[in-house]
């Protein structure tokens, strides 16, 4: 990758993050009356539903606190992060200690899901805010939220209630979210046992979800990695697996470019690029079938924003670790397609949902699932990684 290209990309990611994405969400999403963030926004930022996603109280709080810790401790970022944290702590925990998924603007509970991902996102937010604020109270709460997530998912979520003993299944989401949550908490508060949790999660992904003989990573498997030859058992979600790939590659980077982890992460990326990249229109498809049979979900061929975000990170990280020009080319393809279709030049931010050919499906900028997380995380991570690549190049040249 040439230096001019790297510098151009730095400007795209850095300026997009600082001048577009973060200002868009602080201006339109922050609830100055009740606290927290509202994510159900139309194209121009108009709030079209005041209910709040609990996921995004944690996710946006983490995004902002993480920027305070790694870029600049701006008072408005810290205050907005604290607003989400305060709302979350006051309104989003049920009496059993586990979190809701969906609450009213004022914080009254509406829905609680069987999974505990709200707790994982709360954990990373609390850890990052503890580091940014220097207040150990939030660090202790971060650890308890992480423990709640792991405890609930291993006792209740590994074999979800919707499946019976006839066909018990577990999902890729649990080990991959355990992995990245522990990484965040190790970085922010040096959480005891974080590396052990990371090792266990990586091992589970390798042993149960990766299928080298099929060059695939499955979304759901039996308790011991069994493949069920049914719709659910054959499902592949390329963006999800690619997201797991870069979490593993990030861990490899933190361990001095660990070759075994680099090989694992790039295997996943290679397999899922082959299965997920749309060779006709470009972009990453949402669902594929292990046997290339028809997929039952009707949105299988749509282009959602977040798989593109994760692919942009994974390809750039793979290139930085291996120097393989294949990954530089894949990054160019993923970046260029996404940036030619998702951004809204008039009102800012990205659309979330496109048809297969790149036409906008809906004008929403946010809902209960899309908000300020995947996009700003991509912009931040790629910006920081590219800056390091420039620094390494300068050091070598001098």
Could you explain how this protein is built, in words?
- With 398 residues, the protein is mainly α.
- It has a domain at 170-351: Glycosyltransferase (Alpha/alpha barrel), CATH 1.50.10.
- It is built from 13 helices and 11 strands.
- The strands form 5 sheets. Strands 1-2-3 form a 3-stranded antiparallel β-sheet. A two-stranded antiparallel sheet has the order 4-7.
- Helix 11 packs antiparallel against helix 12.
- The longest helix is centred in the first third of the chain and has 27 residues, at 3-29.
- The two termini are 19 Å apart.
Which tags fit this structure?
398 residues; single chain; mainly alpha; globular; 58% helix; 6% strand; 3-stranded antiparallel sheet; 11 strands; 13 helices; two-stranded antiparallel ribbon; Glycosyltransferase
Task: Briefly characterize the structure.
By secondary structure, the protein is mainly α. Helix content is 58%, strand content 6%.
């Amino acid at each position: 990758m040439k230096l001019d290209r790297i510098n151009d990309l730095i400007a795209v990611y850095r300026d997009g993050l600082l001048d577009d994405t973060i200002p868009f969400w602080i201006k339109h999403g922050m609830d100055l009356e009740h606290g927290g963030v509202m994510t159900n926004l139309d194209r121009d930022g108009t709030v079209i539903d005041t209910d709040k996603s609990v996921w995004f109280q944690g996710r946006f709080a983490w995004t902002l606190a993480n920027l305070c810790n790694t870029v600049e401790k701006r008072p408005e970022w810290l205050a907005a992060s604290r607003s989400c944290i305060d709302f979350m702590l006051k309104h989003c925990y049920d009496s059993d200690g586990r979190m809701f998924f969906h609450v009213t603007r004022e914080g009254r509970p509406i829905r609680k899901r069987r999974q505990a991902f709200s707790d994982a996102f709360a954990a990373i937010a609390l850890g990052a805010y503890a580091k940014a604020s220097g207040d150990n109270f939030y660090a202790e709460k971060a650890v308890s939220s992480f423990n709640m997530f792991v405890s609930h998912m291993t006792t209740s979520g590994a074999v979800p209630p919707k499946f019976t003993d006839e066909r018990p299944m577990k999902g890729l989401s649990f080990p991959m979210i355990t992995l990245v949550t522990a990484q965040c908490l190790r970085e922010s508060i040096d959480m005891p046992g974080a590396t052990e949790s990371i090792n266990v999660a990586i091992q589970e992904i390798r042993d149960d979800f990766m299928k080298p003989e099929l060059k695939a990573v499955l979304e759901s498997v039996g308790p011991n990695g069994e493949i069920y030859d049914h719709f659910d058992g054959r499902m592949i979600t390329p963006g999800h697996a690619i997201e797991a790939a870069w979490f593993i590659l990030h861990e490899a980077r933190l361990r001095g470019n660990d070759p075994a982890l680099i090989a694992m992460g790039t295997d996943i990326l290679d397999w899922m690029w082959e299965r997920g990249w749309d060779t006709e229109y470009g972009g990453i498809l949402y669902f594929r079938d292990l046997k290339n049979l028809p997929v039952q979900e009707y949105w299988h061929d749509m282009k959602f924003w977040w798989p593109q975000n994760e692919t942009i990170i994974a390809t750039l990280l793979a290139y930085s670790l291996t120097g393989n020009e294949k990954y530089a080319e894949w990054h160019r393809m993923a970046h260029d397609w996404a940036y030619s279709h998702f951004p809204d030049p008039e009102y800012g931010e990205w659309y979330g949902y496109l048809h297969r050919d790149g036409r906008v499906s809906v004008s929403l900028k946010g809902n209960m699932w899309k908000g300020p997380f995947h996009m700003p995380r991509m912009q931040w991570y790629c910006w920081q990684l590219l800056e390091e690549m420039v620094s390494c190049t300068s050091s070598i040249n001098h």
